[in-house]
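Posting this for the archive.
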Amino acid sequence: MQSSENVGFAAGTNRALAESRGRYVFLLNPDCDLAPRALTLLCEFLDRNPNAAAAAPLLTSDNGGLQREFQLRRLPTLRALAAEALLLNKMLPRNKATAHYRYQDLDLSRPQRIEQPAAAALLVRREVFDEIGGFDEQFSPAWFEDVDYCRRLSEANKELFVVPAAQARHAGGASLEHMPYAQFIDLWYRNMWRYAHKWFSPRKAEALRWALVFGMILRCFAALVGFRNGSSNRWEALRIYARVLRRALNRWDDSSPSPS
């Protein structure tokens, strides 16, 4: 099926699921290219392991390097998300908490059970979608809908695996090519907050919001002294982070428009 509008990852996937048939559903981002027999290997793995709810190929970059830290993560905790918000994972990338969260010591010589594979390429049993339901469309247009879905699978005691023998080349950043950096930053942290608000206790969700507030203050200071992400200049970066700071202080009131 082809949609006449871009309704976002979650809603688009849910519409496609409603029209799909067969034992398995394969989610594949447009910036992923499967290696030969990758899909066959994933199907064979699920055929041999009836307790596995889903299986992911190992993602690689254009130069052949593994994207394991992007793809393979444990379900986020307050500590993990706060470390990202406060830039601790950038300043201390090899600290024990980050290493644990991103499976840095995972043996990828064989299939491994993981908590949260990125949904850029993921084979899921159709019966799992029938039981758990589709993606939560509040995480629109993208980001954290797959994290939320993995959390729902975990709550239902469903097992997810990465199958290293199956691989897919992932370019990454396809969504960002059609979205201004200001909008991406706002949506990323807004959906992070929504995830915390849904799954964390009220006290922990509020703690994360304040970590996001202080994190944006740090980014504003970094922009002033010349450090920034993306192609924005110093003052544009400052404006972007200041806007996210205001929205974090207001708990991302959805009555206010998202930046464009």
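The mean pLDDT is 89. The CA atoms of residues 29 and 120 lie 5 Å apart.
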